[in-house]
User: Which sequence fits this backbone?
């Protein structure tokens, strides 16, 4: 039976059972930061399980594409080596929200698998597991389905940790969860050793898991903390690739119809007669995943989902290289998977995006080829050197650290060559390196992905030049190298020579215009990586071609303000050193056309007097109109002359010094004025602590200082006009108002305290008295949650044995407090009462045995629910205290 037919039958079956058929949701979970990728069919129903979302139908079925690489569920290293593991797979699932639960879910699964109308699997070859405490499920299988008892296996908790079982399903560290029952199928052709299956280990060795029926009963808020879901629900998942392998009578999902066509296409491209099955499987699996992710606008990168995609692509390329594919091949394979997704009911748009997908894959492949070639050659040499078939873990890390060869690639190749690696020692080296990287964050330079596409170097000639006639040497559009940028298109231009300063040394990049005879390109920002400079912007009109002669003109007004701020930063740095006697250690800076920002390490407090001193010193240097000179010299000479430089930064042999005579001498590649007088004015607008002993000064220069004072004077005039009778002494008037406000606050607090006492007395008078314990439950309304704490504390002081439940409703949030006197927590504790509360009104919260606080999902709590809580708590008290 073809894979497409199986999917169609599944959806038809549940349609006949009155289920709403929904399409596969995006591989990128919407509004859910807890997941990296969609990893199960139930992801799109999460809000329904939690009771946050209302629905018209209560039963659904879908065929959902999932990714399990990265995050909690990571099958990455198993792919290719295990016959049924994939980075991307299709999950058939049916879901119910209160309409049916365990019995019908099990009956439906059994009918679909075994009935003649559907899949017709042999009943004798089906085995079942269940969570050992789920007696209801056990009873259904034995007494309703009539499954032989020796085909039903109970699965216990691991390491005696409650709910830590293969048959207790969890979506992640938090979220919906519950017991599950799994269906296995015996694929062995001869069933002579069936008596060997006595436990879960025997089952996994001899049978294939095909369907997991999860019964959602709980919501895991934190590790070891669960609350009941508002509605018990059903979530099932059957791997389409797995069930296809059974119905197509093959021993691996890689041998099913969808994969065999793809693998045959790869084989045709390999000239080497030694065709490695593992590598072929990895390439086939990874091209499916890569194509689908790119179709959902994920591109290869260095963080998060983008990094996972890059990792998948590079692993496939490495295996291609290993089996003889030395030239770009991977991008060509994307067209062979279109048939697999053509009729799938999903958001994938592979057919329309195939050219974009191919271009992105080709770019990534081209960039990685050089790394791969060097790394692989080095690895082959290292393997040849080994005498005992053991590769030193330090060598593996060296290949990664020096030549960029991914560690998992080296592991894969060593596995194929039967080379032994000490995984524990390797993991230790990786761990120590990660810890070292965290300590040296400032040394790590993050590259922008588009800068990696630039292959043409630029000469920066913008210290004195503002306008330059030059040539376009490269054009990048939509993360691809192209030959023309058309009207209104956003892109990147690379120039042979440029007056545009690329963002570095804390200074932002220039903006401006690049004009050709055919059009105008607006430069919004300029970024650089060494000698690679990117002019980022859009075509205002017309078009620009590669090799066009253009007129490059920076925004001079913006540049002048930036130069004022940069030159003032150098003056500020030296002034700080002068006032604090060389105790200042620079930690970073930002210079833009709005303000300058300077971060530095200093152990003591900075006073208002210090700020005034800094402003006076800097402004005096500005008034003196001191020349600002740029000096090119060697780094060694600069160090000898005690020039200021960042200790954490690596410098080239030849450096540039910005020297302000007898006051400041600092290494810098930024743009500056010719003399200090051009700065105009300098004003510090804030100074604050941003970390452990780290201070941040923010300042403005030039015309912005005048505007700052104009704004300030205007505000003062407005304040002055408020005081009709006493305009001359504003300070005394404001002081009087503040004193009056403080008096009102004190009076108001007295009234609140009186009100709290009165409420407490009323609650005590209406308390229930059960088994010598006072029980109070009440809804009150205060803006601040702390008020209900005060009320509960007063009640506890008055009553010897008490259980207090207070629910505080306001317009924004509903909070609760459960407070219990210390002398009864041995028998009755707040955490148990919280579970009773959550069983009727869902919520979140935690605390100790004597006090629990949190919030409730319902904003308005009606009296019926309060009555239910009251009855349940009273029953609980009577049961415990009898």
Assistant:
């Amino acid at each position: 039976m073809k894979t497409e037919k199986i999917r169609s039958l599944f959806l038809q079956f549940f349609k006949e059972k009155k289920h709403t058929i929904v399409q596969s949701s995006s591989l990128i979970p919407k509004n859910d930061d807890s997941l990296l990728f969609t990893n199960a069919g139930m992801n799109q129903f999460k809000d329904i399980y939690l009771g946050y979302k209302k629905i018209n139908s209560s039963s659904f079925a879908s065929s959902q594409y999932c990714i399990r690489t990265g995050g909690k569920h990571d099958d990455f290293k198993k792919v290719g080596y295990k016959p049924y593991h994939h980075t991307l797979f299709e999950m058939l699932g049916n879901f119910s929200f209160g309409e049916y639960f365990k019995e019908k879910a099990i009956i439906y699964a059994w009918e679909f698998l075994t009935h003649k109308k559907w899949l017709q699997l042999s009943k004798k070859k089906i085995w079942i597991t269940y969570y050992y405490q789920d007696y209801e499920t056990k009873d259904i299988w034995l007494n309703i389905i009539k499954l032989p008892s020796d085909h039903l296996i109970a699965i216990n908790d691991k390491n005696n940790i409650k709910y830590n079982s293969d048959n207790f399903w969890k979506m992640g560290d938090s979220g919906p969860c519950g017991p599950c029952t799994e269906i296995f199928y015996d694929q062995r052709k001869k069933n002579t050793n069936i008596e060997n299956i006595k436990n879960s280990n025997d089952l996994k060795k001899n049978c294939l898991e095909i369907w997991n029926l999860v019964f959602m009963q709980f919501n895991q808020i934190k590790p070891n903390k669960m609350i009941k879901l508002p509605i018990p629900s059903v979530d099932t998942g059957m791997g389409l690739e797995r069930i296809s392998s059974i119905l197509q009578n093959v021993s691996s999902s890689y041998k099913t119809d969808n994969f065999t066509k793809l693998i045959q296409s790869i084989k045709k491209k390999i000239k080497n007669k030694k065709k490695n099955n593992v590598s072929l499987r990895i390439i086939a699996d990874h091209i499916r995943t890569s194509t689908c992710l790119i179709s959902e606008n994920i591109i290869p990168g260095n963080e998060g989902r983008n990094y996972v995609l890059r990792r998948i692509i590079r692993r496939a390329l490495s295996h291609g290289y290993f089996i003889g594919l030395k030239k770009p091949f991977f991008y060509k394979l994307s067209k062979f998977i279109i048939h697999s997704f053509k009729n799938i009911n999903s958001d994938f748009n592979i057919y329309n995006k195939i050219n974009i997908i191919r271009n992105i894959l080709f770019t990534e492949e081209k960039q990685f080829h050089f790394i791969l070639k060097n790394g692989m050659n080095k690895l082959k040499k290292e393997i040849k050197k080994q005498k005992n078939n053991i590769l030193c873990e330090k060598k593996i890390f060296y290949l990664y650290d020096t030549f960029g060869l991914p560690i998992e690639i080296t592991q894969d190749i060593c596995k194929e060559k039967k080379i032994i690696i000490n995984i524990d020692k390797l993991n230790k080296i990786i761990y120590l390196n990660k810890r070292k990287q965290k300590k040296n964050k400032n040394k790590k330079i993050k590259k922008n992905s588009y800068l990696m596409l630039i292959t043409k170097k630029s000469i920066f000639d913008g210290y004195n030049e503002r306008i330059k006639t030059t040539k376009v040497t490269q054009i990048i559009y939509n993360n691809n190298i192209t030959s023309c940028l058309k009207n209104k298109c956003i892109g990147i231009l690379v120039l042979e020579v440029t007056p545009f300063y690329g963002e570095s040394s804390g200074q932002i990049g220039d903006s401006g215009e690049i004009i050709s005879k055919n059009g105008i390109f607006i430069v919004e920002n300029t970024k650089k990586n060494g000698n690679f400079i990117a002019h980022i912007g859009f075509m205002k009109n017309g078009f620009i071609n590669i090799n066009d002669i253009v007129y490059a003109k920076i925004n001079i007004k913006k540049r002048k303000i930036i130069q004022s701020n940069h030159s003032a930063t150098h003056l500020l740095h030296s002034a700080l050193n002068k006032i604090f006697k060389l105790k200042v250690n620079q930690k970073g800076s930002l210079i833009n056309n709005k303000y300058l920002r300077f971060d530095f390490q200093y152990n003591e407090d900075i006073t208002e007097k210090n700020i005034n001193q800094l402003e006076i010193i800097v402004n005096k240097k500005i008034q003196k109109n001191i020349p600002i000179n740029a000096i090119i010299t060697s780094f060694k000479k600069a160090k000898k002359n005690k020039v200021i430089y960042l200790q954490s930064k690596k410098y080239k042999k030849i450096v540039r010094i910005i020297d302000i005579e007898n006051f400041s001498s600092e290494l810098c590649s930024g743009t500056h004025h010719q003399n200090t007088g051009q700065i105009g004015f300098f004003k510090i607008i804030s100074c604050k602590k941003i970390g452990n002993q780290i201070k941040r000064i923010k300042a403005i220069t030039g015309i912005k200082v005048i505007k700052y004072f104009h704004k300030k004077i205007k505000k003062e005039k407005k304040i002055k006009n408020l005081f009709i009778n006493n305009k001359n002494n504003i300070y005394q008037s404001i002081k009087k108002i503040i004193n009056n406000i403080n008096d009102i606050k004190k009076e108001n607090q007295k009234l609140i305290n009186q009100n709290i006492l009165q409420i407490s007395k009323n609650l005590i008078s209406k308390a229930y008295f059960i088994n010598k314990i006072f029980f109070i439950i009440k809804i009150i309304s205060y803006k601040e949650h702390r008020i209900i704490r005060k009320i509960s504390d007063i009640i506890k002081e008055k009553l010897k044995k008490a259980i207090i439940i207070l629910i505080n409703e306001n317009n924004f949030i509903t909070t609760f407090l459960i407070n219990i006197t210390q002398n009864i927590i041995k028998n009755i504790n707040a955490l148990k009462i919280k579970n009773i509360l959550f069983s009727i009104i869902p919520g979140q919260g935690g605390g100790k045995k004597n006090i629990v606080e949190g919030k409730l999902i319902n904003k308005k709590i009606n009296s019926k629910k309060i009555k239910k809580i009251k009855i349940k708590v009273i029953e609980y008290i009577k049961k415990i205290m009898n």
Summary: The longest strand covers residues 207-222.
